[in-house]
Amino acid sequence: MRSEPTASFWGTLLYILAGPLLWAVQFTLIYAGHTAACLPAVPETLAVPLVAVPTVAAALAAVAFILRQEAFARALGAPEPPRAAALHAIARIAVLLALVAVIWSGFALALVDSCLAGR
Amino acid sequence: MNRAGPDDLPNALPRPPGEEEKLKRVWATPRGWRILSAVNNTVVGVAYLGFAFLFFLLAGVVALVMRTQLAVPGNDVVGQDLYNQLFTMHGTTMMFLFAVPAMEALGVLLLPQMLAARDLPFPRLSAFAIWAYVIGGLVFFSTIFYGLAPKGGWFMYPPLTLTEYSPGDNADFWLLGIGFIEISAIAGAIEIVVGTLRTRPPGMSLTKMPIFAWAMLIFAAMIMFAFPAVILATMLLEIERAFGWPFFSAEKGGDPLLWQHLFWFFGHPEVYIIFLPAAGLVSMIVPAMARRPLIGYRLIVVALIGTGFFSFGLWVHHMFATGLPALSLAFFSAVSMAVAIPSGIQVFSWIATIAASEGRFRITTPSLFVLGFLAIFTLGGLTGVMVALVPVDLQVHDTYFVVAHFHYVLIGGMVFPLFATFYYWAPMVSRRRLSETLGRITFWLMFIGFNVAFLPMHLTGLRGMPRRVWTYPGDVGWDMLNMISTVGAFILAAGVLVFIVDLLRNFRPTAGGGGAGDPWGAGTLEWLPGDVYAARSIPLVRSREPLWDQPNLAREVEEGRHFLPNAPTGGRETLVCSPVEAKPEYVLQMPGPGWSHVLAAIFMAGFFLLLTVKLVVPAVLSGIACIIACIWWGWSLDPGPVKGDVPIGAGIVLPTYVSGPRSHAWWAMIVLVFVATSLYIAYVFSYLYLWVVSPDAWSPHGAPALPPATWPLASGALVAAGAAAMLLAGRRLPAPGRPSATAPLLLAFAALAMTGAVVLEVLGHWYSGLRPGQNAYAAATYMASVLNVQVGIAVVLLAGYAIARSLVGCLDAVRRVNFDNCAILYPYGAVQILLSLLLVHGFPRMAG
């Protein structure tokens, strides 16, 4: 085996999980934000920005990751392309999948009123 | 490390005489009754799987009794109370005692073989997990025979399960029994995470891992994050039942829905915890039968990761009917549909691989079960998308439609792949293959029986039959459908019976001594020739299907020409590699057979079960005995650097002892810290959730004023001082052979400081007049201290253990793993206590 620099495990983990983690953060923020916005002491109008901002931010971050994937790999200490091509493909597809989920859940804001009782 | 070419193998021939005999001697399994002390993964794995299958049969018999009761309207085969116990035990046993343990068992059994490791890194932990599970599971299941079985459903919703509505010990058996079995599952998860990441063969980078290893890695990670939520939930409910702390009692500011959030945060990922390993198994069987690599390896890895993550965003789809805000429901509905994408990716990958087979796709018993799985699971997935839609869910909620849906997902998605596994991998651990003829009969009976049983249930549900009813009137159009379902259930059972006949006739376990060989011509490493020591030498891997791409590999490995063909330390060892690119790092010395872990499991079971029946003193004694057994167990696990460095082949010389982030023990502790973090996050969620529901219960309006700030400040200062002492102790560890009292004294101070911090926190609230039974706020406040006491006890035990090791000269600046274990947990504990102080003292001041 070659004496290339040893890849950082935690960096590599973060790299291949970047997409799902982005989704997890966005999902947590929109669920918690919407719940908070529906509390009696909080103005209901806050619900829209509390859902829209994390959604847009997460979507932009996902796009940035896809456009600057090599830089992310380097910064995190993951094996850089062209080493470990499969790893980079996995990271890229995972971000794409997460992007779909981010948009899908955030898009609900356009279809359903906030703070409306569910039944 | 130098790259070894095809003709440049790590070790040369001829091998020294007696090398293989020594390996056999070192790895020999105990004979006779001493087999109970065995730790070899092939022995423990087969036993684990056997007990999981036993629980499958027991829960299956329970299901047949229920189906007999429901065959005709107004039936009285069993009464209402027993029926409640039956459906509770059926669901609980299938989910907790069969499905998860069966998958962990497969991890223990198959992973070391697929990774060509000699064993998983903590063999006694695997054995401990199985004994804890077997004892706890058997005692728990036996409650059905003397009317003590729980009867609140497998999800045990309060308020039904609170003492007022469920008096007696029945619910306690569920809460303590399942809590105990969850500990066993977490122990198994630690083993699987560390084993998958660290004991892969040289060259097997992450992206060359078999899909099953990926699936097990994600499975174990999901257990780390999902199970703590239900552990916390069971703690809260048991504490409310035993001591009256009102977490779930609405009249005191609690909320039964908190249970649902915590339970389903575990419960929905649980479905995927069961499904992902099964999907991993299918991803191994399909290429072997198609005689070609899996199409879409990368996509399947993404699908496994994506499913693992998304499954944590689905829990509220079990709560669509509880009145949460519609937009929140929409978020969860979206993710519930989105999770179909990764599942679909896997299904299409399997279909593509089958369609692109080299020649015709071989139709064998494993293939039949895989094809049956594809058909049934896909149907279950489709109804899953239906119930992900809020309006549809509201229509079919709590009806037999849901029963049909999840049986399609669980039996299709887990039981059929498991039977495929039995037939596919039996030759690896049995001297004889299972019968193809009986296998095909088993498949067809199970496939037909399953569909006859569960397809009509969709209609029964759409016609309005609710779940969990013990009988029904005869004039509402459910009679015929129920009779058909019952007939189907018995056909399904007949299939399982034929399988048992096959097992009795043909399954001859070899206790690790090599099986019937590779009948499938598969490409992965579990089919390397082996013996009790697994593969003779640990191969250098260059592709995902090494046996296909390196045609001489099996011979080379058997000749001992790859890595570690011997036992250089004279004991059990395996190779530990770097987690990403699998570069060899050290030779791990492993423990052999022993009794300490067996005793620890027995006494831990005793602690939980005696506590359940309120025998407090015997329970405490059993707990102390468990701790003593654990200390005995741990004492032999730190051999120190006495064996020096050893050659493994290709000119590589590796240490036999490491500490710090390279050590497998460090990794296990980190996994444990993740588990503890997850438990604590679940607690923070619970605290904030209860505040959202009942802000009026919070101090200062609904409870006494908070203690003066000096209390939390003193507590925080103590824990910070303890952390500093711990840091200093790490720097003051003596050089080998030069005993010093400084580090032990600093360790003792650190442990005492943490104990003091926790005690101060409790006393502060007590002197302020707050009592935990007062309302939900008080209960949530004291619960923070309960969790801190847990961590504190663990730190005190680890520090005490490190001090003891230091006093006998087994701990120094080099031999420091026992210190590192404590040094990893301590800062975590300190941060948890500081966050608790901020939450408990800062939040009410801010919100009030």
From TrEMBL, chain A:
<keyword id="KW-0812">Transmembrane</keyword>
<keyword id="KW-0472">Membrane</keyword>
<feature type="transmembrane region" description="Helical">
    <location>
        <begin position="46"/>
        <end position="68"/>
    </location>
</feature>
<protein>
    <submittedName>
        <fullName>Uncharacterized protein</fullName>
    </submittedName>
</protein>
<keyword id="KW-1133">Transmembrane helix</keyword>
<feature type="transmembrane region" description="Helical">
    <location>
        <begin position="12"/>
        <end position="34"/>
    </location>
</feature>
<feature type="transmembrane region" description="Helical">
    <location>
        <begin position="89"/>
        <end position="112"/>
    </location>
</feature>
From TrEMBL, chain B:
<dbReference type="Pfam" id="PF00115">
    <property type="entry name" value="COX1"/>
</dbReference>
<keyword id="KW-0812">Transmembrane</keyword>
<feature type="transmembrane region" description="Helical">
    <location>
        <begin position="709"/>
        <end position="729"/>
    </location>
</feature>
<feature type="transmembrane region" description="Helical">
    <location>
        <begin position="779"/>
        <end position="804"/>
    </location>
</feature>
<dbReference type="InterPro" id="IPR036927">
    <property type="entry name" value="Cyt_c_oxase-like_su1_sf"/>
</dbReference>
<dbReference type="InterPro" id="IPR035973">
    <property type="entry name" value="Cyt_c_oxidase_su3-like_sf"/>
</dbReference>
<feature type="region of interest" description="Disordered">
    <location>
        <begin position="1"/>
        <end position="21"/>
    </location>
</feature>
<dbReference type="InterPro" id="IPR023616">
    <property type="entry name" value="Cyt_c_oxase-like_su1_dom"/>
</dbReference>
<feature type="transmembrane region" description="Helical">
    <location>
        <begin position="594"/>
        <end position="611"/>
    </location>
</feature>
<comment type="pathway">
    <text>Energy metabolism; oxidative phosphorylation.</text>
</comment>
<feature type="transmembrane region" description="Helical">
    <location>
        <begin position="43"/>
        <end position="66"/>
    </location>
</feature>
<dbReference type="InterPro" id="IPR014241">
    <property type="entry name" value="Cyt_c_oxidase_su1_bac"/>
</dbReference>
<feature type="transmembrane region" description="Helical">
    <location>
        <begin position="211"/>
        <end position="237"/>
    </location>
</feature>
<dbReference type="GO" id="GO:0004129">
    <property type="term" value="F:cytochrome-c oxidase activity"/>
</dbReference>
<feature type="transmembrane region" description="Helical">
    <location>
        <begin position="173"/>
        <end position="199"/>
    </location>
</feature>
<keyword id="KW-1133">Transmembrane helix</keyword>
<dbReference type="GO" id="GO:0020037">
    <property type="term" value="F:heme binding"/>
</dbReference>
<feature type="transmembrane region" description="Helical">
    <location>
        <begin position="438"/>
        <end position="460"/>
    </location>
</feature>
<keyword id="KW-0186">Copper</keyword>
<dbReference type="GO" id="GO:0015990">
    <property type="term" value="P:electron transport coupled proton transport"/>
</dbReference>
<dbReference type="GO" id="GO:0005886">
    <property type="term" value="C:plasma membrane"/>
</dbReference>
<keyword id="KW-0349">Heme</keyword>
